[in-house]
């Protein structure tokens, strides 16, 4: 939602500025922002098959181009937050994270933790990272957010998505789809198993987030899926106000 997914490297400046205002007006403390790649990182990562790891020399440039595109998007988001008075601080995940077969293995969150303690708002993102098994891969913002929350002892993760939460079916395609207001860890695992068996995302685009959120929920972190397209929702979520959403809880 921070980019126009149909147009490569096109930021949704109106949405970015609105969300920056909502973050600023909510006045959250001890906040870390993690954003995805949208039309900046995804097309390049797909073109060069970066997520699969090294198979040909041409991918080396693709890795660098993907990372640089994410740096560009991150700069736009950080500048929007700074424009609203939020002390945002860009931190590149590829500078301190190494994965092993696409999962975070070597990580040191000391700089992120110190930034938060010092009153800054670190802004991280899904990134092209080095991988000990594949040479390189793509680290998703979802995996990063869950690991950050778990390792740093966060109370809550707020996932901003383009629907109100997890539904019984894709709400964009099924009129009678119902919002599931709360999911337990066992229910989440059941959804992931069903999705894997069907080789499709039966939860309306949420299977990946549910899967990545599992370890954080198991560690006691509450996860909230909210509709960031609706003005005021992110503000209210950060303020802890009651909104239409899905909670993932242990």
What does this structure look like?
The chain is α/β, with parallel strands linked by helices and 250 residues long. It folds into two domains: 1-154, Carbamate kinase (3-Layer(aba) Sandwich), CATH 3.40.1160.10; 155-250, Acetylglutamate kinase-like (Carbamate kinase, 3-Layer(aba) Sandwich). The protein contains eight helices and 13 strands. The protein has helices at residues 13-26, 38-47, 58-83, 110-117, 141-152, 185-198, 207-218, 233-238, and strands at 33-35, 88-90, 97-100, 103-107, 121-125, 127-131, 135-139, 156-161, 166-167, 179-180, 182-184, 222-227, 246-249. A four-stranded mixed sheet has the order 4-3-6-7. A four-stranded mixed sheet has the order 8-12-13-11. A three-stranded parallel sheet has the order 1-5-2, with helices on both faces. A hairpin with a 2-residue loop joins strand 3 (97-100) and strand 4 (103-107). Helix 1 crosses helix 3, helix 5 packs parallel to helix 7 (207-218) and helix 6 (185-198) packs antiparallel against helix 7. The protein is globular. Residues 197-204 have low confidence and may be disordered.
